Amino acid sequence: MTYSNRQNVYYTVTNLTNDKPITFPLTLRPLEKIQASIYHFRMSNLIDNITPLNNELHFDTFSITIPPKFYTAIELKDYLNVALLPHTITCTYENYQFKFVSTHSFTILSTSTCKRVLGLSDNDQSATLYPAYTLVCPNRCDMSQHFITINITELSTHWIHSRKNITNTFCKIPINCLYGQVIYFEPNVIYLLQKTNIRSMSIKLLDDYGNELTNSPFEIAFKFEFVYVLPNQEIQEEEKKDDDDVDLSKFEHYDGNVKVKSIGGFAI
What we know:
With 268 residues, the protein is mainly beta. The protein folds into 2 domains: 2-46 and 147-233, Jelly Rolls (Sandwich); 56-136, no CATH class. Helix content is 6%, strand content 42%. The strands form 8 sheets. Strands 1, 2, 4, 14, 15, 17, 18 and 21 form an 8-stranded antiparallel beta sheet that branches. The longest helix is centred in the N-terminal third of the chain and has 12 residues, at 73-84. It starts with a strand and ends with a strand.
C-alpha cells in the first residue's frame, strides 16, 4: 500500500451537521481507496444508566418499571423502596451490593432487564430465610455505561487489521469520565473504506444497551487519507490457508532438508 499525492482531508461532524451533505464530496481516482480514521471524539457524558431497554424489575407476583434517567446507587435504592412499599419489601445498598428484605418469600425473575445494574444473576433468584426473607444480589452493581458505539450509515468499512469485519460500526468509544464530565478520546483505529465516494455522513451513537443517543451534543473529527492498494494487497474474505494446505509439490525432501528442484531451467 502506498499513499497518494493528494492531501489528507479533515472533516468534523457535530450533532448540528449530522445527516447533512458534506461540503467536499470525496471521489476516488482509479485504483485509489480511502483510509479513514477518527482524529478525536468529544461528547458530554449525560448518558442515562437506566433506559427503556434496562428498566424492568420482575418479581414473581408483580413488576416495577423504573423511569429512565441517570441514578446514583442511593437514588435508585430510594426509588425502589417507594415502589416496593405496598409489597412490604425493603431495598438496601451497602458495599456496592443491593439487598432485598421482606417478611414473606419472594423471587426476582430472570426476565428482569435491570440485572446488570442491580448485580443480579441471569437466573431466577429466591429470597432465603435468615432470619427474614433476604435476597442479596450476587454481583456488585454496575451503575455505569461503558461504551459509545459509532455507526455510520453510508460507510461500509473493512478493518485492515481483520479479515471479516465488514460493517457500518466504525468503532467503540470508552466512556472514560464521570457522569456530567466531557468524554474525550483519540481512537487509534484505521479503516479501508469499501466505497468509491462519500457525499454525506449519517452518524448514529448507541449506548451499551443499543439506545440511540439522539439528544447528546457531540463532535467527531475525521481524517481521510488517499492510498493506492494493489488488488493482491487487499484483504480477502476467505481465511488464509493453513500450513497443511500449502502445495509442496515443488519441494523435494532429502535427509530431512528441503532440496530445491529445478523447473523449466529455473531454480525455485
